[in-house]
Structures are given as structure tokens and as C-alpha cells.
Automatic annotation (TrEMBL):
Source taxonomy: Bacteria, Bacillati, Bacillota, Negativicutes, Veillonellales
InterPro entries listed in its UniProt record: 4Fe4S_Fe-S-bd (IPR017896)
Domain of life: Bacteria
Keywords annotated in UniProt: Membrane, Transmembrane, Transmembrane helix
Keyword Ribonucleoprotein: no
The 4Fe-4S ferredoxin-type domain, residue ranges: 27-61, 156-190
Protein name (record): 4Fe-4S binding protein
Pfam family, one: Fer4_5
Organism of origin: Megasphaera hexanoica
Amino acid sequence: MKSRHWYHYLWIWSIIYFSLGFVNILFAWLGLINFCLPLLFAIIGGNKLFCNRYCDRGQFLRFFGSQAGLSRRHAMPAFLHSTVFRVLFMAFFFAMFGSALWTTWLVAGGVASVQDAVMLFWTIRLPWEWTSTAAVSPWVVQFSFKLYSLMLTSELIAIVAMLWFRPRAWCTFCPMGTLTQGICKLRNKKG
Ligand code: SF4
């Protein structure tokens, strides 16, 4: 039997993160960890250690897809592996992240009011009125909703890919994976 390390249990953090969003949407800010840590590993270390070990989503997909055997392991279409698709998907994903920042900026400047709903796949509006956010600035609330929407949407895509294809199929075209891979290549080329 393969030995287990503490990071193999990081999938629990994925469940905690999305559950906390039901309690209070402000916990969505914790999702920034998943943006900052892989970048730090890639920029400072020049490696994909985050993806290989410490990514809670990667561990979540491995656990449910591989260990729990939920993955159907159908062949992935070739285009999902292609550099063009991966780069376009990354560009789209970060454009959506930029749009979240822009909306937050508008709310902070008093130009727009808070859209207090979680948007699934950028189109399906999920009512999320039970979370109390009265004590903080509206822009903080706005960013929470936007980030949680982005995290939940990408998690659902990752789960569908895990169920239908292989456990970590999402990692093939994950925007953070593509970005950090590019950074590592550049960094190691320089080195
Ligand atoms: S590719 Fe994305 S989801 Fe997969 S381990 Fe890396 S950061 Fe996590």
C-alpha cells in the first residue's frame, strides 16, 4: 500500500471552502490562496510542487476520481490537450477574473451597486441571500460573490471532467496549471 502524506488529505479543504461559502460568502476570499500559492511556487521555486502535492483541488480530484473510483476514464478529446485550447481557456478564465476585479472596483467607487448573487457559468443566477454581510464594505462583498462564482464554476467543470474522463482531467487545461507551467518554463530557461 502506498504511504499517505498529510497533503493527500488536502481534498478536505475543498469541501470546507465551498461549505463555508454557504455560511458566509466572505469566506470566498480564502480562494485567493489558490491563486497566490501556485504562483509563489512557480516564481520562487520554478517548480510545480503546488500542483503535484499541495493543491486541494488536485487532491480532491485524485481522491474521488482515483481512490473512490468515480472516474469513468473515457478518452479525452485531443483538443483538450492542445496548447491553443489551454492558452485560450486560460485567457478566458483570467478575463473573467479581471471582470470580477473591475466590477469590484466600480462598487468600491460607488458607480455600481453590489450584485449579491452567485453566478454559475457566468449566466445562471443562484440566490444567495442568507449570508450576512452587513458589517463590511460593499466592494468586499462584491469580490466575495465574484470569486466564489468563479471557484464554484471551475470546480463543477473539474468534477464533470473527473467523472467522465480521468481523475485529474481538469489539470490538463486548468488555467493556473497552464500559467505556472509557462512561468516554470521561462524561469528554467533563464536559469
Ligand atoms: S493544474 Fe490546477 S487544479 Fe490541477 S493541481 Fe495544478 S493548480 Fe491544482
